[in-house]
Each structure stands twice: as C-alpha cells, then as structure tokens.
Amino acid sequence: MPVTRTLEADVLRRQDPELAEILLGELDRQSTTLQLIAAENFSSPAVLSALGSPLANKYAEGYPGARHHGGCEIVDVAERLAVDRAKALFGAEHANVQSHSGSSAVLAAYAALLRPGDTVLALGLPYGGHLTHGSPANFSGRWFDFVGYGVDAETGLIDYEQVRTLARTHRPKAIVCGSIAYPRHIDYALFREVADEVGAYLIADAAHPIGLVAGGAAPSPVPYADVVCATTHKVLRGPRGGMILCGAELAERVDRAVFPFTQGGAQMHTIAAKAVAFGEAATPAFRLYAHQVVANARALAALLAAEGLVVTTGGTDTHLITADPALLGIDGRTARGRLAAAGLVLDCCALPHGDARGLRLGTAAVTTQGMGEEEMATIASLLAGVLSGGTESQKARDQVRELTGRFLPYTG
Ligand SMILES: *Cc1c(COP(=O)(O)O)cnc(C)c1O
Predict the structure, then answer these.
(1) What is the per-residue pLDDT for 406?
(2) 257-271 pLDDT, tens digit each
(3) What is the pLDDT of residues 119-176, one digit of tens each?
(4) For the residues 328-337, what does the mean pLDDT come to?
(5) Which residue from 33, 79, 268, 271 could staple onto 343, CB 3.0 to 4.6 Å apart?
(6) Ligand 1 closest atom vs CA 180
C-alpha cells in the first residue's frame, strides 16, 4: 500500500514528521473505524499511486492535441486513455474527464446547456437534492430559477406525477435527476419522456450510482440523458473528481464549458488515476463488487428495519440507505455523534417529511474491505445497540476494532 510504503521509505517522515504523523493518523482512523459514509470508498493502491505521481507537476490547459502548454505529449496519452476507457465503460459517445469534482461537473453541464435566469426542475433539497440543484447558498440557486419536485409522503419514492405536472406548468429549460440520498433506482426513461414533452434537456447527476452503473448493478442514465454528470470517487472507487458523459452533438459545448469556462489547467495526476479506476471498473471483479455492494445494502436495510429503524422507501436498490432512528428514542444528529464515538462513521440527512434528521449510510467502503452479509448483521446489531443505549460505547468500539482488524482496507 503506497501511503505506508512512502512513509516507511522515510521521505516524508524525515522531512516533515508533523505531516507524516497526520497521514498515519488518518490511515489508522480509516482502518480502525467503520466507514459507512455513503459517498466514501477506498481507492486502490494503483489509483493512489497515480495520484501521487509526477503527473501532478504537469500543467496542461486545453485538451489532448490542443494544449496551451508545451511538453504535454505524454499526459495527452493518459487523458486519451481515460476518455476512451470512460466511453467504453459507459457506452457513451463522448466523455470529459477533466472536472475537478462532482460539483464542477454539474456547473459545467449547466454552463453547456443553460443561461443565467433559466428555469430548472430538480429534486428539492429537503428530499435529497444536492447543493448544486438549486441551494440558495450555491451558484445554482443564485444563477438559475430552480423548481423542486419531491417524493411521495407515503412511499418515499420520487413523485413522477408531480415531476410531469411541474414540468408542464414551469416549462423548464432543463430537468435534473439524481440525488445525494435517494436509495432507489431512478426511472430515467420516464424523465426522458417528460423532458421531451416540454422540450427540456435532461441532466442526470449520477454522482452516487455511477459506480453501480459501471458494474452493471444499476440502470444507466447514458441512453436517456442529454448530459450525465458524475463523480469518480464514490462507488466507482477512483480518485476524487468529476466526469461528464454526453452524445457527440453536445461534445464541443461540454468541453468548452469545462475548459475554459469553469476551469483552468487539468489535473493530470487525477486524470491518470481516473484512467486506472475506469480500467479496474471494467473487470469482472468490479462487477462482482458492485453487485455485492447492493446485496450488502439490501441486507443491512432489512436488518436495520428489524432493529426498529424506519428505513426510507422500505429498503434500497443501491449502496445507500436512509433511516429514521426516532423509534429507538434518538434523533439523527445525536445518533451520528453517539455512533462516531463507537467508531461507526456515517452522515445525518434530511428525511423526506417533517423536520427530523435521519441517518444516511452506504456499503461501498465496507464492501471494498471484503465484508459480506454476515458482517452486515454485526454492523446492524452494533448500530442498534449503540442507538438504543443497550451497548456501551466502549464495548461497541472494541467490537468495531475487532471487525475492522479482520478486514483491513490496505495491507502490506
Ligand atoms: C457527491 C455529489 C455531488 C458533488 O460531488 P463533489 O465531488 O463533492 O463536488 C454532486 N451531485 C450529487 C448528486 C452528489 O451525490
């Protein structure tokens, strides 16, 4: 594992022991607590090694074959490889792999298709819309006129009838589908139909499920959406970053929206690491991984429901679960703190209805560690024990240490 090897090689430790200590401390935290944050994962040693490579030194504004800097002939090959692998992996006509993050990919998608003041229909923030889907604190809410659709109060499922009605009423220039907290598959075909009916672009923000799509464990938005935005670091297990997929007819607009409109120089080390991750995601092992992620999440959701948590939509189709712990006599915010003290790291999230905060968790990272349904049962009973006050924090912490000790994210 390159982090420890670098440190053992004493380069950083000798030059900057203070920082080396921090890196080792974080490696230890990641290895001895349970990473249940739905957006996180453990990228491979190969991905980390591309990230820590001298490609980080290279300035490369522009695109392969058309750079504003000299000396790009080798990094051009890396970017072409990343683009070709992304296109093949997702069956897309065009891929832009330069976005620095998921948010900047969304910004670029809007820049490619919209003008300030345009109306955009997206999942409302209280129901799991991302900041970039119209938050007043974000550029999106400031520059565009967002209308929010919601989820059904009973089922927690996207209210597709409301999507249709709001689209007809507001005639948005674009419709966004995608969420930070929606545990079910999204009906991309239906979104396409509504977008076509009102003459809107369809933007899929698949930041979360794109890794499942890569592994064939979730439906792909690529055949339906005009533009697909994604991250590369969630279930997909690559470096922190963004990516955009689209048809050939929008390729030039998307590329210009990324550079020079929203970004300067591309981060070539990250792009190389994206290429590595796309290569990994194309393997049979990754298909098995993606399906195991979903099997683990389904098992965990059922076990948590049996322990008395109210699981939104009654379960999950993906890696992601949201749940209300109120029946155990605890609110989401207090629950997160108590779980963190016991070494179970997860997020709070908005719940579809009412003001209470819930819990959001995911199985991408623990599945990378090799955990399966048996370990999900251990995790569920640990969670429930800590939340109900039945298990002492220190005892739970010891059990987490025991479990994580058997499933190290990095070895060697
Ligand atoms: C994670 C996420 C993003 C943003 O990704 P960052 O890399 O954190 O900027 C955007 N949209 C959705 C739906 C996400 O889940």
Answers:
(1) 97
(2) 999 999 999 999 999
(3) 999 999 999 999 999 999 999 999 999 999 999 988 999 999 999 999 999 999 999 9
(4) 92
(5) 33
(6) 15
Q: In what order do the strands lie in the sheet with 347-350?
A: 310-311, 320-324, 357-362, 347-350
Could you identify the residue written with the tokens 């995601």?
A: 281
Alpha helices in 307-409 (DSSP H): 332-341, 364-368, 373-388, 393-406
pLDDT band at 412 (very low <50, low <70, confident <90, very high): low
Average predicted confidence (pLDDT) for the chain: 95
Pick the CATH number of 54-281 from 3.30.930.10, 3.40.50.920, 3.40.640.10, 3.60.70.12: 3.40.640.10
Atom of ligand 1 nearest to the CA of 242: 7
Q: What is the assigned CATH class of domain 284-406?
A: alpha beta
Question: φ, ψ for residue 343 (rounded to 5)?
Answer: 90, 15
Break the chain into its structural domains and give their ranges.
54-281, 284-406
Which of 41, 34, 35, 37 has the alpha carbon at shortest distance from 212?
41
Query: DSSP letter string over 194-243?
Result: HHHHHT-EEEEE-TTTHHHHHTTSS--STTT-SEEEEESSSTT---S-EE
Residues having CB within 6 Å of any atom of ligand 1: 39, 101-103, 106, 130, 132, 178-180, 205, 207-208, 231, 242
Q: Which residues are catalytic?
A: 59, 61, 205, 231, 234, 240
Ligand 1 pocket: which of 37, 99, 180, 186 to mutate (most atoms <8 Å of CB)?
Answer: 180
Q: Would you call 334 exposed, middle or buried from its count of C-beta atoms within 10 A (0-12, 13-18, 19+)?
A: middle
Token reading at 107? 């910004």
**Token pair recorded at residue 316:** 């999950």
pTM (global) more than 0.90: yes
CA distance 408 to 1: 11
Minimum-distance ligand 1 atom for the alpha carbon of 129: 13
Give the pLDDT confidence of 211-269 residue by residue, as tens digits: 999 999 999 999 999 999 999 999 999 999 999 999 999 999 999 999 999 999 999 99
Q: Report which residue type is found at 362.
A: G
